[in-house]
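Dear Dr. H.,

I hope your travels went smoothly. While you were away I took the liberty of generating a structure for the chain from your last submission, since the lab meeting agenda had it listed for discussion. I wanted you to have the full record in hand beforehand rather than looking at slides cold. The sequence, exactly as received, is reproduced here:
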Amino acid sequence: MHDFEHPETAEAGGISDPVALARPDAEFIRNDVSRALAEDIGSGDVTADLLPQSRQATARVITREAAVLCGQPWFDQCFMALDASVRINWLADEGSAVRPGQPLCDVSGPVRALVTAERSALNFLQTLSATATVTAAYVNAIRGTRARILDTRKTLPGLRYAQKYAVRTGGGKNHRMGLHDAILIKENHIAAAGSLGAAVARARQLHPQVMVEVEVENFSELREALEAGVDRIMLDEFELDELMQAVAEVDGRVPLEVSGGVGIDRVRAIAETGVDYISIGALTKHIRAIDLSMRIAMG
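The corresponding predicted structure, in token form, is as follows:
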């Protein structure tokens, strides 16, 4: 993982930032956890059956590496779904920067519930902390510029709300949640509609309240998008000098977003061209789980 500082809290946006989600509500969290427990437990935890049903236990979770902590609501729900008597005392705040060897929380309750929920709970915590941690690294890399880091739809199946929440926890901002809340017109849409202008006009006619963004690959398409009056323009695979030229030509009339092949090594240079947004699929699809440990002691 990269070095990072505690990120700033992502702020809500307007039409040019269509998805500024609040923390996922309890229903989303319960659904995520229900699926996770069902695939792990199946017809029953046959290993937990070896333990006395009435025996109590305690456990401590620590992190073996630096991270931005994220996923507490999912972690908690894994235990509460199995036994409401389980108690969890968090020793680090959601969204805080934690160091190697730092205790994250103490868990106490029936030992069967602790051992059965352990893997699913840690899976959520290590995965969402990974997304928040990577996001924080990118956010800190461009600190002081006008650019903002965005996520994409390249999320783990079934965990989009959770991972987009983790992006916000890491200081990033959300792009559209899915295909329903913003229109992103790409090459295939333009070809089917006949022209970029025709695609934008059709989008305005069908969904007048929805943000319309167009992906462009050259300056001819950039000018056509400006003429069509889109809400945002995505510059796909533009070189640095081309990005600076695009920023100068657009001159603040429409927010500009950069997409495609953005790594931590060049994100600062991209941000310094003056673009408004940088979208990065790696925040959610190229993550490596944070190394966590949970040790249980019998009461």
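Two observations you may find useful: The two ends are 36 Å apart (CA to CA). Confidence is low (pLDDT under 50) at residues 1-21.

With kind regards,
E. W.
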